[in-house]
Amino acid sequence: MTLLRPGALCLALAAAFPSVASAASDVELKQLRDQLRELKESYQQRIDALERRLAATEQRAAGAATAAAEAGVAAGSAAQSVARVEARSAELQAAAANAGGSRPQAGESAFNPAVSLIIDSKFTRFQRDPSTYRIDGFIPSGGEVGPPRKGFSLGESELAFSANVDHLFRANARFALAEDDGQGVVEVEEVNVETLGLPGGLKVKGGRFLSGVGYLNQQHPHEWDFSDAPLAYKAFFGYRLQNDGVQVRWVAPTDLFLEFGAEMAAGEKYPGAERNRNGAGLWTAFAHLGGDIGASSAWQVGLSHVGAQPRERTFEDNAVTNAFSGRSQTWIADFVYKWAPDGNSRDRYLKIQGEYIQRRETGMLTYDVDNLSGASAASASRLRQSGSYLQAVYQFMPRWRVGVRGDWLDSGSVNLGSLSGTELPILAGYNPTRHTAMVDWSPSEFSRLRLQLARDKSRDGEADNQVWLQYIMSLGAHGAHKF
Amino acid sequence: MIVKTLLRLAAMLLVLAALPAGAAVNVFASVPEWAALAREIGGDKVNVFAATSALQDPHRIEARPSLIARARSSQLVVATGADLEIGWLPVVLRESGNAAIQPGKPGYFEAAAQVRMLEVPARLDRADGDVHASGNPHIQTDPRNILKVAEALAGRLAQLDGANAVAYQAGLANFAERWKAAMARWEQSAAPLRGAPVWVQHRSFAYMADWLGLKELGALEPKPGVEPGSTQLAGLLERQKVTPGRMILRPAYARATASDWFGERAHIPVVVLPFTVGGSPESGDLFALFDDTLRRLLAGLK
To answer: pLDDT at position A286, please?
Structure first.
C-alpha cells in the first residue's frame, strides 16, 4: 500500500538529512495525530487502521535517524511522500465528513442559487399558416397566441434562478430565451421577491410574476398538460396574465384550504394597455378553496376577478389600427379534481380541470385611429364575451399519459354603437372551438415526450388540423410543482 | 353595508386565526412513521397530522391544498429530509405562509439529520436515476435510527412547548425503555436472517439490511425510481442462478408487476413489507410495524 512507501522514503530522508528529517517528521506527525484525533469520533475504524500504519512509519523514521547512514538519496521525493500521507489523511477526513451526513459544501459556490434550465422543442405540421393566426370574434390580445412555425422549431428555453436572499426574502428569476427572425431574444418572464417571515399566514410578492388568478395561469408552459395554452387564455390574457406589481396572499388557518389574494399591477399588457401614469392600471382579487375527498381524491375551486382600465389599447384589424378605451372586467371560475388510487399517483391518476372566463368591456372604440381609410370614427361600445375549456388527463400506467381537451369561445354580445361590423370584421360573431388529444411519455420526472393532435377552428371557416411533437427536458435543480 | 360585511368577515377570520393557539402543539409529519413517533413522545400534548399514507410513494406526493391548509396551522413540521420530500414539501411550506415552519426555524425538524446516512452517492448524475445527494432517505427501516430521531424530536418538542417539556422527556423515557426492550426481542428473533441474500424492489431497505445483516444482492429497479424492464429482469434471473437470493422485498406502495414476475420465475417468495406505519393491516404503530416486518421476513425465509 501507499503507506509502506512513505516509510521507506522517510528512511531515505532521514539518511540524507538526519536532524532535519526527524524534526520535520516530528512536526508533520504531530499535526497528523491532531487531525486524526479530530476524526476519531465519526470514523473510528479507518482511523485506527491509519494510526497503526502511522505508528509503523514513525518507528521506521526514528530508527532511520540513528541507523541508516548508508541509505538512498531521494530526499526531495521523501518530502513529497510525507505530503502524500497528509493528503491521504485529508481525503479520509473528507470521506468522514461525507459519511457523517449532509454536511454542506463550503466555499464561494455554497450559496449559489438553485439554477434550472428547461428546454422545449417542437416539430409541427399545420394546415394553415401560423403567421396569420387569429381568433375570430375577439379583439386580438397581442400576446404570443399563435402556434409555433411549421416544421422544426426551437421553442423557448427557460432559465430560472431562485434562492433565499436572507431570513426575510426569497427571490425568483425566470428568463425565456428564444429566437425571433434569427435574432436572439431574452424575455423576462418573472423576476420577483417574496417574503418569508410575515406573521399570520400572509405573503407579499413584488416584481414581475404570473398572476394568481385562475388555475392554469401560474403554471409555466413546461408544466402544461398540452403543448399550447387553452383558447380562452389566449383570447382573454394573451395566453397568460403576467403582472408587474405587488401581490398579497393570505391562507386561512382552517383544515379546509382557503386562500385569498389580491394584486395591484402596472397593467401595461392585455387586457390593460401601455400607460404613462402614476399608480396601478390593473387589479385582481382571487380566492381558492380546496381539500380532499377520502384518501384518493383532491379538489380545488377558485373564483378570480381582473379589472383594468385600458387607455388607447390598439389592435390591428383589416390593415387599419383601432383602439379601445374604457373598463375591462374579467371573471374566472376554475376547478381541478385529481384522483389516484389511495392517493398514490405513481401508477395511475386522473386529473380533470376546467375554467370559465367571462369578460365585459365598456368604453369607447375608435375605428382607424390613424385615419388611413378616411372614415375614422368612434363610438361607445359594449362587449360581453366568454370562453372555457375542459380537459382530462389520465396516466394509465407508469410514465404514460393520455389527455383530451375541449376549447369553446363565445363571442357573445358585441354592441358597437354607431360603428358597423364591416369596419371591424374581426368582431363579427363567431364561436371558435378546438379539440385536442395528446399522449405523452415521461421516462423520469425530468423529461417528457409528447404527441398532440388538434383540430383548431379559431379562424372562421378555416379549420386547422395540427400535429405536434414536443420534448420538454429539465436540467439542474427542479423545483416542486404546485397542485 | 359593504363596509359592515367586510368588518364582519374580518372579525370572523380573526376568530378563526386565534383558534389553534393554546391547544396542543400541531405537528405536521411528512410520513406516517414520524407521525407515530410524535404521538409516542407527545401523547395528548400534540395534535398530529400525517401528510401521507403508507400506500403512497413518498417520492411522488402532490402539494395538495389540504396539505397547505394543515401546514398553515402547524407549529412543527417533522420531515425525513435527505431530499425524500423534495417534490412537494418545499411548495407546501412556502405556500402555507407559515413563517414558523420554514427550514432553519425551530418549527422545522429533519429526521435524517439525526442519523448516519447510508449509500451516499459518490457522484451526482441524474443518469443514475432518482439519486439523493445526501444518501438513502429511507432511514426508518432501522429501529436504532428511530430511537435517535426520538431523542432529537423530544428535545425539539420541549424547545417549542417549554411548558410541557417535562411531559416530553417523560414520553421519551417511556418510549425509549419499551423500544430498547423491543429491539432486543427483534434482534433475537431475527438471528436466522443474518446473512440471508435478498433482492429488493427499490433501495428502500438499506438501513434494515444494515441492522439485520441481510445481504442485498441488488435492486429490481435498474436505477432508483426507474421501473424495471424485461431485459433488466432477465439479467437479474441470470444472476439469481449464480448467487441465489432467498426472497424479494417490496414496500407496500410499490407496483407488484416486476417483483411478482421475478418471484414466479426465480421460485422465491415476494415479501411485501409494510415499510412504514399503516403499510399492512397489522402495522398500526411503530412497535407493530417492526413486529410485522420481522414476522413477514421470517415467513419468507421458510
So the answer is: 98
End-to-end CA distance of chain A: 56
Q: From the list B64, B90, B113, which residue is nearest A102 (CB)?
A: B113
Count CB atoms within 10 A of the CB of residue A90: 11
Spatial distance between the Cα atoms of A170 and A482, rounded to a whole number of angstroms: 17
> Which DSSP string do the residues of A408-440 spell out, in sequence order?
EEEEEEEE-TTS-TTT-GGGS----EEEEEEEE
Question: Which domains does chain B possess?
Answer: 2-185 (3.40.50.1980), 190-301 (3.40.50.1980)
Sign of the torsion angle spanned by Cα atoms A221, A225, A226, A229: negative
Cross-chain residue pair B66–A344, CB shorter than 8 Å: no
Residue of A394, A384, A381 lying closest to A420 (CA atoms)? A381
Q: Which three cell numbers stand for residue A388?
A: 372555457
Q: Which helix (H) or strand (E) holds B278?
A: none
Asked whether the beta carbons of B90 and A162 are under 8 A apart, the reply is no
Q: Could you say which of B86, B96, B117 has the minimum Cβ distance to residue A251?
A: B96
Distance of CA B27 to the CA centre of its chain: 15
Range ranked top by mean pLDDT from A36-40, B54-58, B139-143, B218-222: B139-143
| pLDDT tens track for A161-193 | 999 998 899 999 999 998 887 888 999 999 999
CB contact under 8 A, A344 and B94: no
Strand pairing of B25-29 and B46-50? parallel
pLDDT per residue over A387-421, tens digit each? Answer: 999 999 999 998 999 999 999 999 999 999 888 88
Distance of alpha carbon B251 from alpha carbon B274, whole angstroms: 6
d(CA A188, CA A209): 10
| pLDDT on residue A445 | 87
- Asked if A258 lies within 8 A of B113 by C-beta distance, the reply is no
Residue pair A25/A83 in contact by the 8 Å Cβ criterion: no
- Residue among B91, B97, B227 whose CB faces A250 most closely: B97
Domains (range + CATH), chain A: 4-99 (no CATH), 120-153+190-195+202-476 (2.40.160.10)
Whether A402 and A295 have beta carbons less than 8 Å apart is answered as no
DSSP string, B139-160: GGGSHHHHHHHHHHHHHHHHHH
pLDDT tier for residue A37 given thresholds of 50, 70 and 90? low
Distance from C-alpha of B234 to C-alpha of A354, rounded to nearest angstrom? 44
Could you write out the DSSP letters of every residue in A215-253?
SGGGS-GGG-SSSS--HHHHHHHTTS-EEEEEEEEEE-S
Mean pLDDT across chain B: 89
Closest residue in A to B105 (Cα) is A167
Mutate to test the interface with B, among A336, A346, A478, A481 (most CBs of B within 10 A): A346
Q: Which pLDDT score is estimated for A94?
A: 42
| Å between B115 CA and nearest CA of chain A | 8
ipTM exceeding cut-off 0.95 for this assembly = no
**Cβ of residue A165 closer than 8 Å to a chain B Cβ:** no
- Separation in Å, CA of A230 to nearest CA in chain B: 23
Residues in chain A with CB shorter than 8 Å from the CB of B130 are 444-445
Q: Say what angle helices B165-189 and B143-160 make with each other, to 10 degrees.
A: 180
**Chain B residue with the nearest C-alpha to that of A102:** B134
Q: Which of A116, A168, A254, A441 to mutate to test the interface with B (most CBs of B within 10 A)?
A: A254
Nearest Cα to Cα of residue B80 among B111, B115, B125, B113 = B111
Give the nearest chain B residue to A345 (CA atoms): B60
Shortest distance between the Cα of B58 and any Cα of chain A, in A, equals 9
Residue B24 backbone class (left: φ over 0; alpha: ψ -120 to 50; beta: rest)? beta
